[in-house]
User: What shape does this take?
Amino acid sequence: MRISLLDAGTRLRKGEVVAVPTETVYGLAACLDQPQAIQEIYTLKSRPPQNPLIIHVGAPDLIKSYVDELPEKFDDLADFFWPGPLTLVLPVKGDAVSKIATAGLRSAAFRVPAHPLAKELLKLTGPLVMPSANLSGKPSATSASHVEDDFGKEFPVLDGGPSQEGLESTILIWDEKKWVVGRLGALAPEEFLPVLRVIPEMAGKGLTGKELNETPTCPGQMYRHYAPKARLTLTLKIPHTAQKSQVIVGFSDKNYPERFKIYSLGSSAEPKIAAKHLYAVLRQLDVDGVKEAFVDIDFPDSGLWATLKERLKKAANSLSD
Ligand code: TXA
Ligand code: MG
Assistant: This one.
């Protein structure tokens, strides 16, 4: 059910959960000061209670009240990337943030979204927690109808059109000495170079054993993700021999054997377009009842392409390289 901005604001203030557009993906929103609404988010999504939520605020200054001290380069990152598809995980003061939002961690994730409707809504509601508006394990929702597919036609959605980025925000975690990437997302690690002067490493990289357990990572990364029902086979070269699968997730400017039906991610020269289409294409496979599909992953391993490959590996549930 599509609702207006004012209605969305009123419902959230009353302690209801509504779906909200952001420039990355749609979010399932609850007010940070409404614990029973936050609890309802976990129930609605069937989300494991150990997986904390991102707190969305209207401006970086609003984060100060939750922390003792802002980490190095926080202001530079905020100036450069916010509002936008970046989430920063910071150590927070003892009781400053509801434990239900942080899943009991001593840190919390913050983001200032750029979508005009999300910005307007935050002025009416104050801070909102928002996980992606999909059932746990399914591809994130990048349109109002994706949200309705997962939560039913009567579920209240503020319709902001198709999501601009189509991938979740990139998460940087402050691990006391440096910023590390907790989740790849709409911003490629290379894009942080001008601000951080280094390309941030993936959290946990290069560590073993005990150290690994102490490394800050995003709990959400442990779970199977972004997956359609279809069994996906990632491949560099589509086999010419007879195969069960008749479907390829690929690119509009490439030639594939004629007997295949193509689900296009757009041009193989435009990773941002492919990112924007990815989840809609994965969801369409389910709508069409596709059981098996090849995915053409003959594209680079850098920038946003690397993020796309990581998402596809998770969708295919073949996490090892
Ligand atoms: O683009 C996005 O980030 C979207 C839109 C709606 O803003 N939100 C989103 O939320 O993707 P969600 O809940 O699907 O993913 C949040 C991720 C999870 O992997 C979670 O584990 C991680 O953020 N996270 C949250 N708080 C954390 C913390 N304190 N430390 C480490 N990871 C955290
Ligand atoms: Mg999610």
User: Anything to note?
Assistant: The longest strand covers residues 86-91. The chain is about 30% helix and 15% strand. Residues 4 and 156 are 9 Å apart (CA to CA).
